Amino acid sequence: MSDNVYAVSKVVGTSKKSIEDAIENAISTSSKTLKNLDWFEVKETRGYIDKDKVAYYQVSLELGFRYEK
Amino acid sequence: MSDNVYAVSKVVGTSKKSIEDAIENAISTSSKTLKNLDWFEVKETRGYIDKDKVAYYQVSLELGFRYEK
Amino acid sequence: MSDNVYAVSKVVGTSKKSIEDAIENAISTSSKTLKNLDWFEVKETRGYIDKDKVAYYQVSLELGFRYEK
Amino acid sequence: MSDNVYAVSKVVGTSKKSIEDAIENAISTSSKTLKNLDWFEVKETRGYIDKDKVAYYQVSLELGFRYEK
Amino acid sequence: MSDNVYAVSKVVGTSKKSIEDAIENAISTSSKTLKNLDWFEVKETRGYIDKDKVAYYQVSLELGFRYEK
Amino acid sequence: MSDNVYAVSKVVGTSKKSIEDAIENAISTSSKTLKNLDWFEVKETRGYIDKDKVAYYQVSLELGFRYEK
Amino acid sequence: MSDNVYAVSKVVGTSKKSIEDAIENAISTSSKTLKNLDWFEVKETRGYIDKDKVAYYQVSLELGFRYEK
Amino acid sequence: MSDNVYAVSKVVGTSKKSIEDAIENAISTSSKTLKNLDWFEVKETRGYIDKDKVAYYQVSLELGFRYEK
Amino acid sequence: MSDNVYAVSKVVGTSKKSIEDAIENAISTSSKTLKNLDWFEVKETRGYIDKDKVAYYQVSLELGFRYEK
Amino acid sequence: MSDNVYAVSKVVGTSKKSIEDAIENAISTSSKTLKNLDWFEVKETRGYIDKDKVAYYQVSLELGFRYEK
Amino acid sequence: MSDNVYAVSKVVGTSKKSIEDAIENAISTSSKTLKNLDWFEVKETRGYIDKDKVAYYQVSLELGFRYEK
Amino acid sequence: MSDNVYAVSKVVGTSKKSIEDAIENAISTSSKTLKNLDWFEVKETRGYIDKDKVAYYQVSLELGFRYEK
Question: How far, in Å, CA of E38 to CA of E63, rounded?
Fold first, then answer.
């Protein structure tokens, strides 16, 4: 990793199923426009409630990716 | 949402199974006294350990709900 | 708990499966050297990405354990 | 103030006009159920966007009020 | 504690004597309306000054209490 | 909102008039390059001073926008 | 700006009208004792409530000013 | 309080006896140079250890005082 | 202090009496396994409540100690 | 600066030599895709260790740049 | 240090060369008006960019100094 | 890295020369008791002042190291 530069983008993934699934959705959708995705860090975990149950999770992530040379 | 006011309550849900299940338990129990629950935000994720395994998760949430007019 | 003293250690557990599994791995490995593990608190949730999927989760925890008398 | 106890509630006010108006709306609506409102502190200032303009502000506040004796 | 849900309320206690006394006052007054108080966490320690001495301490706490079933 | 992914960009708007005007300027200018703007969150409010008056406000925002499918 | 040193002072301005007016009041009063005021950063926005309306805003600022050579 | 401006200074008081005594020492010493002291807020509580006992407490405070007109 | 290296350990002391006593208990117990204790910093002040009174304080500290050469 | 809008991007620069060199590398590489770079703010300073020496520094920055009109 | 009181001032030093040089400049300039400077703590590290290189570093510090008796 | 567990220790390195040198000193001294050191993160940068110059830097780090299997 030693002479690379990385960019960090913030994205929010959503899922009806789980926190992990919201993370995978965020990464999968972001990968269409961001290449060389390398790591993530969860910044906030939220969600919406419908009829007293979780309607879906919203997980905001920082995504790190390597600048192409 | 534009001319509503929301209240935010903090609750702690527990579960032996998973973080998501602790969130659902917090929402389900709170809904007995709080009406119009609308969103949540995870503030802390903790737990207790018994015999070197997770005994249960404790997830503290802020719960937003609409003031009845 | 009332006249005990507790120490708190920070550890990072990893897992390919889930956040909960990374927590269990951190506790299980730490229990080989730390006795009387009592509670944990999640401090950061990160991970590495490979081919646009989560390669593994890295969950950093504070682990509390009772000082032996 | 010296031998009183205060409770602190978190609320979110909304307004199409301004941040100050969202604060006034939060206080005005909360005052129907909370008596002796004494102070507020802004915790987050957010909003929704429609057609590239602010649709409304959402200001979350902590509201302090004196416990009735 | 394992299948309970807890609510968390924020209160501010005051005392002319000490930080510990402000905490006791907050708990004692809150216990008139909140049942099953279980734990507290100090969030801010402030106070007012009169004639270059502490007039009284103001200690804001989060108070956790068990939801009655 | 439930199966969307959102990106979050940070921008700084400036205005000589007010905090709200700086927010509108940030959104308006950003909308030339970012489509589907959906929400904002104020992160810092600063400004420059000239002759002991506010010369202009600088408000930094996170802007959320929906990924086009 | 490149070979200057700046001092930073914290002040609290109040106003019955608006957040912006409280900022101007803080700067105007501070300018009687602090020369070369250059920038500000809002740190907290609070206020007092009277009869369920904002009685006045209290805005705490960091004020930066250039050391005279 | 409504048309005043306040300045905020940070000081560190020390005491061999208690946290409250360190606060009183900070206020008492500061009052020789700062007039109209009005409130304080504890920011950090530290101390030095000698022979496995607290040698003295160091409590850092923000002190608010009214600008003289 | 100038060419030393220090380690920092986190511990939680408890006491039925006071915050200062919980700090002393944490230091006293830690000193059985950690040599050359030099300073502490309070990170969290919590406690448990029994019958609407403080049952005991829990004070978490960072403890700094000099590496033996 | 008064009627401009700025965007803020997060990047991570690396260097075997120093923190300053990691900052310069982040700016230099980012300047290939971001025009009008104006300021930076260091958010985190980390690094990797090899054979008990720093292998390289990783410095994460927010980079501000002016929107072209 | 045990019965002293310390004041803490915030300053921003600048340098074209390095972070350490900006710290020295802040201390050196502050020492003309503040006596008995004792310690510092770095709070923010920023800088301005010119032609895709660091034009100068801006390091904001808290400076602690002993009150003269 | 994928099925490892890491421990994280906090240490403070000092140096008369530079921030980087304080980091190297912390790592070098820690490596006598901690094996498999892998990464660090700077948490605080402080220092002591003597005769209006930096006497030495104190840099506190979190050090990550792999648990031996």
Answer: 7
